[in-house]
Amino acid sequence: MSMLEFDSTNSIFYTYNAPTSDAGVTYVFFNALTGDCGMWEGEIGESLRAAGHGTLSFNFRGQAQSPIGADVKIDADQMTADSARILEHVRPPRVVLVGLSIGGLFAIQAWLNGLDDVDVVGNVFVNTLRRDGQRLQWINDAMMRCVEVGGLDLMRDLFLPLITNEEYQASVRENFLTDKGYTALTPADNDYNLLAAGGTANWDLPYEKIDMPVLVLTGQQDRLFYVEQDVTDRTARMPVAKRVDMANASHMLPAERPAEFSKTLIDFAADL
């Protein structure tokens, strides 16, 4: 565990393990807006490292253990810049970008903007591809309304059944819809501003310019963000992209199916 420190109030918490085989790649994981790098460091990270690969996970500023100064505006551009900063600081070998949800947008945008001395050999979109429009904007606004009324607990109580499969829901059900009540978030809270950053994202990417090998990994039980035609259209625009669909997973695919997720990443790296 390490810290990339900018100044006394700004740091990025990260964990890096280098590849242990000559054929190994380094999977660099990018969280969703209110995510935590701990999700990557358990079964997933252990499986990848056992196969000789490296891993780099981190928390964006504002997420756990990554403080952010009061004068810094959290938005998509800032989170993209942080993605570039951690890559250029660590400079791991043979990088495979792995972004969950909007984390995939930040990762690929950092690459499109240009990275200094970072060897990126592949990219994995995990339930990332989507079309901006009224529906997505409504979802973003509804999530913000939830946290303004009842914080992340209310948002998760309402939205979790839409972004996880039923097997996962059964395993965590006792932790949700409890009687402890809700606490609203305000712009003074990092989680509020992280969630609001979703509304600042530009989803109109130049997909034709993503000319490295790309894996589009889709959980088909995602009832919130997954629209088949939007995924199909954007995948077709990338020169070297292939799809893997998981019928038994939803939006939180890595948490729902960590073993299958890890194997899919290892299989993808074998062709790089």
What this model shows, in words?
- This protein is 40% helix and 18% strand.
- It has 10 helices and 8 strands.
- It has helices at 38-41, 43-50, 76-90, 102-113, 134-163, 166-172, 190-196, 228-236, 253-256, 258-270, and strands at 2-7, 10-17, 26-30, 54-59, 95-100, 120-126, 214-219, 241-246.
- The chain has an 8-stranded mixed beta sheet, sandwiched between helices.
- The model has no long low-confidence stretch (mean pLDDT 98).
Brief summary of the model shown:
By secondary structure, this protein is α/β, with parallel strands linked by helices. It has helices spanning 38-41, 43-50, 76-90, 102-113, 134-163, 166-172, 190-196, 228-236, 253-256, 258-270, and strands at residues 2-7, 10-17, 26-30, 54-59, 95-100, 120-126, 214-219, 241-246. The protein is globular and about 50 Å long.
CATH class identity: Alpha Beta
Would you tell me the overall average pLDDT? 98
Shape: globular
> What percent of residues adopt helix (DSSP H or I)?
40-55%
Kindly report the CATH topology.
Rossmann fold
Strand order within the widest sheet?
A: 1-2-4-3-5-6-7-8
State the total count of DSSP E strands.
8
What percentage of the residues does DSSP assign to strands (E)? 15-25%
- Which residues form runs of ≥5 with pLDDT under 50? none
Structural class: alpha/beta
